[in-house]
TrEMBL record:
Organism of origin: Paracoccus kondratievae
Leader peptide range in chain numbering: none
InterPro entries linked: UPF0145_dom_sf, UPF0145_YbjQ-like
SUPFAM superfamilies: YbjQ-like
Family classification: Belongs to the UPF0145 family.
Protein name per Swiss-Prot or TrEMBL: UPF0145 protein GCM10017635_33230
HAMAP family: UPF0145
Amino acid sequence: MIVTTTPTIEGRRISAYHGVVTGETIIGANIFRDLFAGIRDIVGGRSGAYETALASARETALSEMQDRARELGGNAVVGVDLDYEVINNMLMVSASGTAVTVE
């Protein structure tokens, strides 16, 4: 399935629009991960635990969005937007776009 942030797909014609589709995931903070991330912040460097968790959450949200597009009969999603929100010490990642059929 083609997934793009652009409103069109170069070289492909959109033949049908199926509506807005979304996918969401929420990941909770882990006390040990927070502790080690805090230590890494003090000594410098990147927090691999957080980066891995964030990448997993993003992939889950995008996968759910694609599943919903398929359910509506789409074979692509255009205009994709990713949002990140912190809610009560949890991170919510949401993906939204328009399910379409391209030729």
